[in-house]
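Design review, sub-item: ligand-bound model
Attendees: FS, YL, KQ
YL presented the inputs for the zinc ion complex:
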Amino acid sequence: MSVISLERTYQQYLEMSQIPFLHCSACQGNHGFVRNFCDVCGAADLEWKIASGRGRIQAITVIHRAPLAELKSTVPYAIAIVRLEEGIAVMGRADLALALGDAVSGRPVEHYDGTQILYFDKQEK
Ligand SMILES: [Zn+2]
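KQ shared the predicted structure:
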């Protein structure tokens, strides 16, 4: 399956408020980036699974200068890499109050261009 087709499927899951990831049944590896083969064992038969959305902040930065004119009204905003419970790292926007190591919960939100992106905030206890 082409990566473009996989990206479309990824967006469709997000539109259904689900956070998808690819799983390799050959080596049991999970992949946070959309790809059409397993970069651990080379298998091509990856399957979609749904993540819980729960994880921890692994890296976070605050953007003060918008990279696009369309984003000017949204600065400052935080971009985080989150290590999900499923072992995969994903990137998304995050609440400005978050810090490294914080337990977070993610959900898809609509981006300025109509696509869906991930947004993380503090995990409910
Ligand atoms: Zn594999």
